[in-house]
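Q: I have 348 residues here and want to know how they pack in 3D. Can you give me a structure?
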Amino acid sequence: MATSVLFWSLREVLIHLFAGIVLAMALCTLVGELRTRKPMPRSMALLICLVALALVVGTATAIVVPPFTEQFHQLLLQLPSAAKELWKLAIGAINQTSAMVYGVDNNKGGWEEQLFANGLNALPDGASLASGVREGLQGLLGLAGNLGSGLVQLLFVLAMSLMVAVQPTAYRDVAISLLPSFYRRRARSILSQCGDALSSWMVGVLISSFCVALLAAIGLSLLGIKLVMANALLAGMLNVIPNVGPTLSTIFPMSVALLDAPWKAVAVLGLYVVIQNLESYVITPSVMHHQVKLLPGLTLTAQFVFTVVFGPLGLLLALPLAVVLQVLIREVVIHDLLDPWKKKRLAP
């Protein structure tokens, strides 16, 4: 009981530690590929990978971020206009339905005006406005504190990932030494399988996200949708979060398309449905044929459970957590605990 309470109180530290391990596995995968192609000391390969990653990130930031920031800002500015246009379409559809049911002149245009009038009457007075401003300032201060805490947590994850990437074998041996001696060889094999599954997942996610961003850019360009770069990059980045991410990525391009013509918003929705089906049934199976297979229902359940337990970071890391847990359950619970028990029951 005391151990459970301790782990529950340290759950945020544990999820940040796991995030550092995932990043460390990404670095170790790059280092392993480099050493496979050209034998060299591990420290040299790690240094080359870090320098290459810094150059790639710096170049991508200089080339992509400025236009992406500008387009994303325009996208956010257009969202209210898109919401108003959607509101007008909804009002028109409701009025047409009401006209078909109750007659053409029955309360035409009256209900929405009354709704806006009630909204205007509900505006706050001076005292309420001052109280709202004070609460807003307190919220800004709290946001600044959360940003500072988030920066510290990010530095912790990066530092942990670098330390593990420098000496992965030493940290693995420390973890294995905490287990009974008779199980250490088996544990080393299980940890190796977890590492292979994580490496395969990361490579597959990068390839599938790039394909999704490319397909989104081509499709939006053919449809004549504005802010193609911003929407394509959002589609690629949000593809990392299964189920939830693709749904969120459709909101922004549909909002932009709705300002031009309603049919374009429907076309964008159809485009993203096609892209996600291609990603789910063609791209992902092709690039992740060595990955641990996860059922969609298990993936959705893992997202819900890890989000409740660990918060937003748990949603982002739900899939790698599910991959590791599936390997552990298959090897430890099924192979090491349940299968020997079954053999004993079946023995004469």
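Q: Anything worth noting?
A: Residues 119-123 have pLDDT under 50 and may be disordered. DSSP finds 14 helices and no strands in the chain.
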